[in-house]
Structures are given as C-alpha cells and as structure tokens.
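Quarterly update from the structural biology core.
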Amino acid sequence: MSDAPHTPPARLTFAMESLAQDGILAGARTHRLSARIDPGLLAAARARTGIQGDSELVTAALAVLAAPDDFGVWLVRQSGRLPPEFDAGL
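Predicted structure, tokenized:
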C-alpha cells in the first residue's frame, strides 16, 4: 500500500463537515463499540477512504449515515468551484 496521502471521498468530507457544524461531533469519544465484520468489507472501506484506524473508520461510516441527505444538492452547488484534480471517487 502507498504511503501517499489519500483524499477521502467527497461524501465523507461533506458528512463530517455537516455534523461538525451541527455540533454532533463536538462530544467526547467515550462510547465503546464491538462488532464482527466481513474482512473484505473492512479492506474495501480502508482502500476507498485511506483510513486505517478502526475507530476513525467506524466514525467515518457512521458520519455518512448520520449526515443530512442533501449531498447531491451540495455537490451540484460546487460546480465550477472544485479544483481540476478533484476525484469524485466514482
């Protein structure tokens, strides 16, 4: 695996920013979670996001689920404002 920095998918960036603005991510990380998951799913999520830490990866996944469902509207509004090297992750 490359050591180069990885840009998270736009949906993840949007989710984290939206939840931070709403004050949802302002709390302490005190809840412990344990789960059994498919190793292929874990590997695919790490590859797509570049996130290697379990806690950070679960936080990112939950953020995408918890964020407002207006990512499409936000993305359309970004027209002409995204840098040429932007990767939509599609």
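Residues 29-77 form one domain.
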